[in-house]
Amino acid sequence: MNDSTTSASEYFDYIIVGAGTAGCLLANRLSANPDYRVLLIEAGGRDNYHWIHIPVGYLYCIDNPRTDWRFRTEPSPGLNGRTLIYPRGKTLGGCSSINGMLYIRGQRRDYNHWAEVTGDDAWRWDNCLPDFMRHEDHYRLDAGGDADDHHAHFHGHGGEWRVEHQRLKWQVLEDFAAAAVQAGIPRTRDFNRGDNEGVDYFEVNQRAGWRWNTSKAFLRRAAKRPNLTVWHSTQVLGLKIKPSADVQPRCSGVRIARPGKGETVVMASKEVILSAGSIGSPQLLQLSGIGPADLLNQHDIPVVVDLPGVGENLQDHLQIRSIYKVHGANTLNTMAASLIGKAKIGLEYLLKRSGPMSMAPSQLCAFTRSSDDYDYANIQYHVQPLSLDAFGQPLHDFPAITASVCNLNPTSRGTVRIRSRDPRDAPAIAPNYLSTPEDRKVAADSLRVTRRIAEQPAFARYQPEEYKPGVQFQTDDELARLAGDIGTTIFHPVGTTRMGRADDDMAVVDSHLRVRGVKGLRVVDAGVMPVITSGNTNSPTLMIAEKAAGWILAGE
């Protein structure tokens, strides 16, 4: 990587803040033009920690200061006063280096709704699909694969972003899938065609049993270009805004702190692009005087632009984890219970790159409806052949599976707000889960759907026992309260710098992701989503970056 520190390197055409999912793709696309000098800045270190690359290593990367910002949420009334860990990647590759590697795009209706709220047809599904396909490398289209016209129409091949099938099967999950079909959920071969209703195994962002993060996919080769400079372990402290009395202020650079270099300013002649994520980007905007005036005044930060939507509209998927004890089933609880079992698991991965060490956090997926009130899939399952009390806790000493279900379209909205003028202070993150009657009703109904699946004949052989939340809880109020007790994030924060029309006072960026009221500044990350996608959010963020790169290069 080009780590030049000469004085000439302090001036660039484009500065990208955050080498995560969006930032790595942007750095690749923008630096492909040799006429542009591009600087990519990452607060975390290199992605050379071995647990980043072994799929099961997410267990050791989340809440690890080497790879994670280690945020915590504020106490949430909807979670009965609980706080949650809130992982965000802090390394090259960002969240793609510590996430679940699950390749899900969302639903056609998500993107068509974005087009409506922004007034820009560029965000319609049919116009987003080419951006998904542009960087995709789907295994079904490999030479000799089982691709058909369907996959060729919806998927790409030869791009940087590898999509593969999982390298494992579990009989207990096969039977849970059969039970889901008996409960009315159709079997599917592809969750990514615009209507994701159905049940099947997740496809994953891996290559031959290794995690495939965006640093490997987009940055590794691009970083050899002489016009791309990558500074890791470098924190951006704020934006440099050039005021103007008669025209819009302009973002001309960033203030940074580099190890051994102290604080300095780096300048951008064309644009500064924030790709610091749904937490980091609104934090930097607020620290720089772009945000709700009341909040900025509270911290004695001069108001550059009063944008009340900065840090508002936080949305996330809350998963409700049901645990079922099973009898006569092989699960990870039993496989990993002994040193011999663990040794076998390690040997299988060493020799074949398969088995439990190649596992994504969830293996089986299902999209369905929480009730007949919906004519589209509004809940999603992440099903695992294991159980534990909470993330980071040991596996239970009995065979069990976990069927986590989340509301895909929550109506609850939260906030991200700075606590002080110090950029090193973590912001206050308040997701406000289960704060609306609609979300509490979906939570209760989704637990009933889980029970209906577990009661089907295909799963009866395991004599399933509901360990959590417990069959004694039946009413809407009881189940909603229990959801607050056991619910936890799937790590999908979006919406805090959302895009919208010019007359939308809460929109932070326009439909081309330019920050309102400031020239030379864009946000390109999951924060720009006006409404959360119906599924995992990593690959939709890549699509957003792909689309934005085209606009930036075209000067739009």
TrEMBL record:
Cofactors, names only: FAD
Gene3D superfamilies: FAD/NAD(P)-binding domain, Glucose Oxidase, domain 3
Domain (Glucose-methanol-choline oxidoreductase N-terminal): residue spans on this chain: 277-291
InterPro entries according to UniProt: FAD/NAD-bd_sf, GMC_OxRdtase, GMC_OxRdtase_N, GMC_OxRtase_C
Recorded GO MF terms: flavin adenine dinucleotide binding; oxidoreductase activity, acting on CH-OH group of donors
Residues binding FAD: 236
A Pfam family of this chain: GMC_oxred_C
UniProt keyword annotations, A-Z: FAD, Flavoprotein, Oxidoreductase
This protein's record includes keyword Signal: no
Similarity comment text for this entry: Belongs to the GMC oxidoreductase family.
Entry protein name: Glucose-methanol-choline oxidoreductase
Phylogenetic classification of the source organism: Bacteria, Pseudomonadati, Pseudomonadota, Gammaproteobacteria, Pseudomonadales
